[in-house]
Design a protein that fits this description.
The chain is of the alpha/beta class and 331 residues long. The chain is 36% helix and 18% strand. It has a domain at 2-164 and 198-223: 3-Layer(aba) Sandwich (Rossmann fold). It has ten helices and 15 strands. The chain has a nine-stranded mixed β-sheet, with helices on both faces. A two-stranded parallel ribbon has the order 7-11. Strands 8-10 form a two-stranded antiparallel ribbon.
Length: 331
C-alpha cells in the first residue's frame, strides 16, 4: 500500500500540528503527486510552508461542509487529525468539541465517500475508551462515526487509530517540563503513581501507516508502547536538563478535572473482538466477525498504561527521550 502513495494525492486535516508535520515528511519519501494541508491557522501554515513549500495549503474547517468537500476532491488518502484535543478547553466548551470532533468528522466522512477517496485514517485517543471528559466522549463518537461508514457500500475504506501520550507533541507534558526546567520553576505533578504511555511521534506515524496498509474497514488500530509514572518522567527530565539534577523542585497539584490515573487503550469488551500480535492490537467493529482470535486473556483484561511494560530505569526513559527528537513548542 505504501507503493500506492507514489503519484497519489494525500490530504491531512489538522495538518499543521505535530502529527501532520511528521506524517507529511514520511509520505514525501514515496513521491506523492500532492500533499494537501487543511487547517484553520494561517500562522502555523506559514511556519510549515518554510519547511515544505511545495505542499498545497488550504485554509478551511472540517465544521464547514463546503470547505471539507473542496479539500477532499481528487484526494486518494486522508489522514484525519483535525480535532479539539485539550481536555480543559473541551470541558469548558463541550459543544465546540462536538462541532469539531463529531460533526466535523461526519462532514469529512460524507465528503470522502462522495469524492471516492480510497482510504481515510482518523486519529483517536485513549480518552475515547471509557470516556470521563467531553474530549473523550466526542472522540468516542468520532470512532463510531468512522467505523460505521463501512457498513454501507462505498469505495472508501474507513478506520481509526488510537494512542495515548505522544512524547514531545505540541501541548504535551514533556515540552512543558523542559520549558519549566529552563525557567528554573517547579515541575507540577498530578499524582506520583499516575502512568502514561511513552510513544514517539515516529511511532505514531508507524501506527497510521500500518492502519493505511492493512485496514479492511471499520477497525481501530492500537500500537503497543511502554509506560512510566509521571514522577519517573519528571525525575529523568530533571536529571537530564536541570542544573539541580534530580533535586529539581516539584509541586503536587492533584488530579485535574477529567483526568485519569491510567491511560486505557483497549477495554475488556473490545478485547473480545481484538486481534493481537507482538506490536499491535486490531479492534474489529461489532458488525464484523473478527478473524481467528489471538487475545487469550480472561474477560476483564484491558490494555493500559498500568499493565504494559513499565519503564523505571533512567537509561530506558532517556533512550526514548533521545529517540523522540526535538520537542514541539509548548506555547
Amino acid at each position: 500500500m505504501t507503493d500506492a502513495l507514489r503519484g497519489s494525492t494525500v490530504l491531512i486535516t489538522g495538518g499543521t500540528g505535530s502529527f501532520g508535520n511528521r506524517v507529511a515528511s514520511y509520505v514525501m519519501r514515496f513521491a506523492p503527486a500532492q500533499i494537501r494541508i487543511l487547517s484553520r491557522d494561517e500562522k502555523k501554515q506559514w511556519e510549515m510552508r518554510q519547511h515544505y513549500p511545495d505542499f498545497r495549503y488550504l485554509i478551511g474547517d472540517v465544521r464547514d461542509e463546503e470547505s471539507i468537500s473542496d479539500a477532499v476532491k481528487g484526494a486518494d488518502f486522508v489522514f484525519h487529525a483535525a480535532a479539539l484535543k485539550q481536555v480543559p478547553s473541551c470541558e469548558m466548551y463541550p459543544a465546540e468539541a462536538v462541532k469539531t470532533n463529531v460533526l466535523g468528522t461526519l462532514n469529512l466522512c460524507t465528503a470522502a465517500r462522495s469524492a471516492g477517496v480510497r482510504t481515510v485514517v482518523a486519529l483517536s485517543t485513549d480518552k475515547a475508551v471509557k470516556p470521563i471528559n467531553a474530549m473523550g466522549i466526542s472522540k468516542a463518537m468520532m470512532e463510531k462515526i468512522v467505523s460505521a461508514q463501512n457498513q454501507f457500500e462505498n469505495v472508501t475504506t474507513f478506520c481509526s487509530v488510537r494512542y495515548g501520550n505522544v512524547m514531545g507533541s505540541r501541548g504535551s507534558v514533556i515540552p512543558l517540563f523542559v520549558k519549566l526546567i529552563g525557567e528554573n520553576r517547579p515541575l507540577p505533578l498530578t499524582h506520583p503513581s499516575m502512568t502514561r504511555f511513552m510513544m514517539t511521534l515516529d511511532q505514531s506515524v508507524d501506527l497510521v501507516i500500518h492502519a493505511l496498509t492493512t485496514s479492511k474497514g471499520g477497525e481501530i488500530f492500537v500500537r503497543k508502547a511502554p509506560a512510566c509514572t509521571v514522577s519517573t518522567l519528571a525525575s529523568v527530565l530533571a536529571r537530564k536538563h536541570s542544573p539541580h539534577g534530580q533535586e529539581h523542585p516539584t509541586t503536587d497539584i492533584g488530579i485535574r478535572p477529567g483526568e485519569k490515573m491510567h491511560e486505557v487503550l483497549v477495554n475488556e469488551y473490545e478485547m473480545l473482538r481484538a486481534k493481537e500480535d507482538d506490536d499491535f492490537f486490531v479492534i474489529y467493529p461489532e458488525y464484523v466477525q473478527a478473524p481467528i482470535k489471538t487475545t487469550n486473556e480472561a474477560f476483564g483484561t484491558e490494555y493500559t498504561s498500568e499493565n504494559t511494560k513499565r519503564l523505571t530505569d533512567y537509561a530506558d526513559v532517556e533512550a526514548l527521550l533521545n529517540a523522540m527528537g526535538p520537542t514541539e513548542s509548548y506555547i
